[in-house]
């Protein structure tokens, strides 16, 4: 008989235990529980608490983190004659004891591990009593810290003392849920003879062929001889297992293999991998995966400028256009495959080619990685140690090793995973943040980063590259976070300096940098109900987690625009400033290629509605930053950059085709008049960067009233000699025509003045509305077309409402002057034919 899987999702209940349990929760007793889930979301579903994401509810629900919770399931079972019946837990968050019919069968202390218990000897025909008792995580962390000794960290809870998602205790963008629960699936598995415990493929390329060593681990209750059959695409391999043998390696060769390529380099070809286990009578178990054949390495060979960190896939350098990924919900069990798909699609829209899974979150699900495999989205996964010193003593040491082994083996099949990284900022923390004095000789995690993790990766996934930390300086001869060596995190600008100073850096690889901005208006006003709402109103303050976040937002804005008094204007100003900051940095970093080999924006997504560094807010809506990333990460980029000898146009070609044509650069006044122009023949090789000095064309004596525009083909770059607050701008004058489009409406905007950073904040019209572009600059007489996808019935007048059509001009010259017309019936069919689809 094959393995029988029974998912235990229904009929669970949960009960709160502890002195701080509110009377209404205590009176409710056992309430229905969702599995996978959390006690907090169960309380919410039962109507016993308000949504923790709204207003000040986070503070009111602090009792949850100091409360024990007990899950119970009346488990009905009938003996089907199987040799073994196992209880399998894919994730318990975090300190828990499992009992079956009153007998303790499992104790866990690690959210990031799975567990399996042989249960048949305790099961009885009929109804069984299965219980999972969770110890309050805040108390568990405090007790663990006392046992291990206090070590530096960056939170109000000692998250580094237990193996729980660090950001679950709150972060400088994250809500403190201190959640508890059965967060991944639970199953009852019945089997006989043997089962497949693990399939771990290790693919490689030999000449034109792909070769995969398929490592198979078994669990047995019988010593009978067995047979393994492995198929990769059309190729097969077989192996007989001797009596008692519980592991084997089957090697399969795929002739003339099609390689897996990342986005922009080729097809992300995958092959089905099927493993079947039989005895002499029948199939006992089977597994199916999809694998890809690719080679990856991280090149850190020193050069004349220092030490690069260059990622090569199939021996081709890939300029990394990346974004950091955090858990997409503070309650990760709520993130399903559709949500992963939507978020990855937003990354693709922004021309991102790598997602870095940050070390204060989770080892992401196979759904996440499978979607990245399918779409050619490169990924790297941090080991889950972030911004803290970690004890190298027991019991933490064994837990960290066990979780690392399990998750490396689980993720090894995914071709998108190209880097496993030892930690986030812990090397920098030790060397730069004064940890040694505070540690006073205590261990801090060095063993994990330089010994344990690289050994595990080499043993279990040698086809995946390893780096000991981020930031990381190869060779250890220079301080961590040195821009000339390896990877850096750039945070001094957000914390202390203006974003124009990104151009003072010439880093080899940037793994983190960011600038804050508020969420979209629809998200902000759904989550916060202050009256009046303002940057300093109580609910807004709860949703700003950064240290001195308000002050830094203001300091970062005033150099560029005045601080608005109106809340809608404030949101737009801060969002635009965030987008301009990161757009400036990205274009600068790309202009340094190949000296600079990549930049990973902090951060793509949010885990709740919050003011943060994200490009997509906690409700999944696109902020202006996402559009700035789309422009700056475009495969072909025209950017104007200052150099020692003056302004220059830099052409970046991240495609496999030569890019050539006439590069035109013109200087204009703010009334649109052309002052000077030059046309040059340009030729940019594939995957190359070319710099074109502008000489006298890049010099003006009228900074407030002039600008530059450079164009090569469809790619356009701009340079404004004066920032918004100093430019001679009038309020934007716009003619707007609204008509139908597939899935929404088309909006054509024609400028009657110079317009900077035109955007349609369409979430204010309909919560589901999305525009296909933003942050567009126009000269007088020029037009831009936008497709707004929405299921709502949106008429032309909606686009004239305050806060919908925004420009940079608004912040220094007042509200735009908008004339709106509806497309005529005569042109409606032509528009519908022109628009072939929307994003």
TrEMBL record:
Residues 195-294 form the Glycoside hydrolase family 2 immunoglobulin-like beta-sandwich domain. It holds the Pfam family Glyco_hydro_2_N2. Keywords: Glycosidase, Hydrolase. GO terms for biological process: carbohydrate metabolic process; glycoprotein catabolic process. The keyword ATP-binding does not apply. It comes from the Bacteria. It is an enzyme of class 3 (hydrolase). It catalyses: Hydrolysis of terminal, non-reducing beta-D-mannose residues in beta-D-mannosides. GO terms for molecular function: beta-mannosidase activity. Residues 26-184 form the Beta-mannosidase-like galactose-binding domain. Its EC number is 3.2.1.25. Belongs to the glycosyl hydrolase 2 family. This is beta-mannosidase. It comes from Microbacterium stercoris.
């Amino acid at each position: 008989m094959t393995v029988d899987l029974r998912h235990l999702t229904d009929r669970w209940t949960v009960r709160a235990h502890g002195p701080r349990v509110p009377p209404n929760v205590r009176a409710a007793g056992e309430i229905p529980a969702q599995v996978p889930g959390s006690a907090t979301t169960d309380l919410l579903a039962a109507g016993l608490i308000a949504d923790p994401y709204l207003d000040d509810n986070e503070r009111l629900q602090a009792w949850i983190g100091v409360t024990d919770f007990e899950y119970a399931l009346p488990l009905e079972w009938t003996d089907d004659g199987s040799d073994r019946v196992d209880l399998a837990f894919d994730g318990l968050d975090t300190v828990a004891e499992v009992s079956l019919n009153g007998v303790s069968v499992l104790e866990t202390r690690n959210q990031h591990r799975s567990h399996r218990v042989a249960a048949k000897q305790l099961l009885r025909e009929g109804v069984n009593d299965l219980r999972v008792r969770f110890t309050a995580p805040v108390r568990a962390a405090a007790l663990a810290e006392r046992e291990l000794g206090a070590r530096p960290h960056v939170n109000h809870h000692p998250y580094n003392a237990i193996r729980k998602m660090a950001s679950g205790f709150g972060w400088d963008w994250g809500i403190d849920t201190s959640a508890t629960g059965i967060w991944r699936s639970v199953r009852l598995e019945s089997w006989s003879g043997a089962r497949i415990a693990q399939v771990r493929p290790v693919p490689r390329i030999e000449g034109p062929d792909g070769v995969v060593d398929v490592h198979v681990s078994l669990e047995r209750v019988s010593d009978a001889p067995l047979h393994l059959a492995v198929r990769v695409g059309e190729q097969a391999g077989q192996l007989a297992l001797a009596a008692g043998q519980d592991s084997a390696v089957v090697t399969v060769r795929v002739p003339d293999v099609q390689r897996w390529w990342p986005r922009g380099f080729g097809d992300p070809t995958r092959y089905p991998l099927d493993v079947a286990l039989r005895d002499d009578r029948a199939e006992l178990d089977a597994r199916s995966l999809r694998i890809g054949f690719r080679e990856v390495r991280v090149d850190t060979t020193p050069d004349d400028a220092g030490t690069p960190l260059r990622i090569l896939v199939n021996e081709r350098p890939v300029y990394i256009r990346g974004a950091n990924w955090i858990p997409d919900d503070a309650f990760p069990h709520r993130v399903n495959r559709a949500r992963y798909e939507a978020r990855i699609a937003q990354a693709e829209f922004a021309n991102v080619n790598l997602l870095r899974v940050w070390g204060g979150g989770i080892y992401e699900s196979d759904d996440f990685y499978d979607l990245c495999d399918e779409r050619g989205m490169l990924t790297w996964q941090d080991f889950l140690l972030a911004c803290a010193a970690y004890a190298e003593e027991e019991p933490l040491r064994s837990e960290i090793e066990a979780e690392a082994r399990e998750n490396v083996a689980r993720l090894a099949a995914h071709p998108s995973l190209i880097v496993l990284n030892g930690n986030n900022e812990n090397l920098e923390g030790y060397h730069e943040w004064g940890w040694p004095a505070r540690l006073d000789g205590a261990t801090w995690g060095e063993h994990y980063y330089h010994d344990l993790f690289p050994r595990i990766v080499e043993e279990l996934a040698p086809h995946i590259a390893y780096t000991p930390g981020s930031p990381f300086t190869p060779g250890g001869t220079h301080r961590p976070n040195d821009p000339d060596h390896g990877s850096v995190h750039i945070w001094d600008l957000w914390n202390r300096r203006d974003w124009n100073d990104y151009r003072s850096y010439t880093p080899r690889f940037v793994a983190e940098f960011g600038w804050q901005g508020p969420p979209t208006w629809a998200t902000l006003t759904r989550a916060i109900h202050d009256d009046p709402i303002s940057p300093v109103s109580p609910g807004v303050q709860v949703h700003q987690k950064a240290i001195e976040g308000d002050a830094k937002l203001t300091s970062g804005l005033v150099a560029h625009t005045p601080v608005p008094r109106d809340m809608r204007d404030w949101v737009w100003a801060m969002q635009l400033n965030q987008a301009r900051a990161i757009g400036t940095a990205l274009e600068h970093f790309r202009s340094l290629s190949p000296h600079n080999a990549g930049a990973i924006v902090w951060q793509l997504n949010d885990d709740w509605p919050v003011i943060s560094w994200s490009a997509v807010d906690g409700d999944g809506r696109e902020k202006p930053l996402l559009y700035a990333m789309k422009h700056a990460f475009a495969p072909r980029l025209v950017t104007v950059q200052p150099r020692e000898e003056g302004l220059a146009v830099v052409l970046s070609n991240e495609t496999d085709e030569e890019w050539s044509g006439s590069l035109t650069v013109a200087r204009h006044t703010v009334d649109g008049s052309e002052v000077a122009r030059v046309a040059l023949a340009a030729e940019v090789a594939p995957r190359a960067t070319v710099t074109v000095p502008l000489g006298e064309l890049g010099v003006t004596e009228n900074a407030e009233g002039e600008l530059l525009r450079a164009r090569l083909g469809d790619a356009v770059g701009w340079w404004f000699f004066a920032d918004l607050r100093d430019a001679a701008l009038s309020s934007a004058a716009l003619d707007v025509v609204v008509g139908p489009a597939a899935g929404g409406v088309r909006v054509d905007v024609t400028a009657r003045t110079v317009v900077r950073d035109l955007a349609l904040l369409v979430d204010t019209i309909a919560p589901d509305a999305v525009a296909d572009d933003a942050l567009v600059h126009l000269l007088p007489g020029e037009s831009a077309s936008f497709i707004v996808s929405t299921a709502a019935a949106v008429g032309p007048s909606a686009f004239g409402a305050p806060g919908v059509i925004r420009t940079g001009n608004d912040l220094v010259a007042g509200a735009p002057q908008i004339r709106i017309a509806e497309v005529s019936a005569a042109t409606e069919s032509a528009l519908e034919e022109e628009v072939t689809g929307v994003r």
